[in-house]
Amino acid sequence: MSVTIKDVARRANVSVATVSRALNGHQNVAEAVRSRVLRVADELRYSPHHAARSLSSRRTGTIGVVLPDLYGEFFSELMRGIDQVARERGLHLLVSSYHGHLQEQGAALRTMRGRVDGLLLMSPFVDGAEALAGELSPTMPAVLMNSTRVAGARASVGIDNHGGAVTMMRHLLEAGHRRIAFIAGPDDNFDARERLRGYREALSQALPGHEPWVLPGDFDEASGHRAGQALLAADERPDAVFAANDMMALGCLFALNQSGVRVPDDIALAGFDDIPLSRYVHPALTTMRVEIAELGARAIRRLLEPGEQVEQAPPDLLAPRLVVRGSSRRPPPSPDQSQASSAGS
Prior knowledge:
- The protein has helices at 5-12, 16-23, 31-44, 73-88, 102-112, 129-135, 161-174, 190-206, 221-232, 246-258, 292-304, 335-344, and strands at residues 62-67, 92-97, 118-121, 142-145, 155-159, 180-183, 213-215, 240-243, 268-270, 287-289, 316-318, 321-323.
- It has 3 domains: 1-49, lambda repressor-like DNA-binding domains (434 Repressor (Amino-terminal Domain), Orthogonal Bundle), CATH 1.10.260.40; 53-159 and 295-318, 3-Layer(aba) Sandwich (Rossmann fold); 161-290, Rossmann fold, CATH 3.40.50.
- The chain is elongated, with a radius of gyration of 24 Å.
- By secondary structure, it is an alpha/beta fold.
- Helices cover 41% and strands 14% of the residues.
- The strands form 3 sheets. Strands 2-1-3-4-5-11 form a 6-stranded parallel beta sheet, sandwiched between helices. Strands 7-6-8-9 form a 4-stranded parallel beta sheet, sandwiched between helices. Strands 10-12 form a two-stranded antiparallel sheet.
- InterPro entries: HTH_LacI, LacI/GalR-like_sensor, Lambda_DNA-bd_dom_sf, Peripla_BP_I.
């Protein structure tokens, strides 16, 4: 038998009217009572009869945003895009971070119930689809950002990470680099896995039998710095380094600069994302430009689209664009070098 609102009221020891008010985000419910009702509804897997409602009947005027973190330029740009559209539509945002922990993700999602009319969620865990499917309420319109597909999501917006990594590798290979090291992101991260796959695929196609050179990373400056130090200590240094995101590339750049290694003369360097800081370091960073703010804007526009959003719809992928800057562009020969070359010929 299906669970009814009376079952929730009985278990939570409140009236049916209180359950209704708590689930629908009404303000005249004490927070302790609301939390108890939401917890019981979650435990009983209660789904109200209005599961098919869309944002056209919203009641709170608030959109929930649940992210793995709030720190860093990527998330700042993402929120800028979401916020711009929300302000244009007269909507408020309720933002929560689960600090990169899968267990805390469920708690963050549960706190959104009854408080928001729709949900934007970034869940990068490769093996977290089953857990996420159990946490997404069937009554809540939801759009996933840069996540694996799961049941219960109406739409998905993301980045073509694999294609972007292949494009960057082709750039480095066409520049004549053969020993290309890759600083990977977290093992359980969807974006990181796709970028690593693109690196491996491009390398195997261009240089069959060539061993990949992969160093661990964690999408932050510190792990990029550690990777740079490891490369400097290697018996043979790489021609180029491709970091799975710009933050790690910048950490690696710092390590190379500390050791007097010239970029790009001695080692070329490239990243992924094109965060604002990447163009203001020296040398400026070659990277794959992701319109991060547009990713957020596109996700909330997709959420606000009228009508039912079918979860079988293909993901809406943004194609990154190669931006070549000083960190991989070899400087032209000096006039003296050019004259010497001409004399030698």
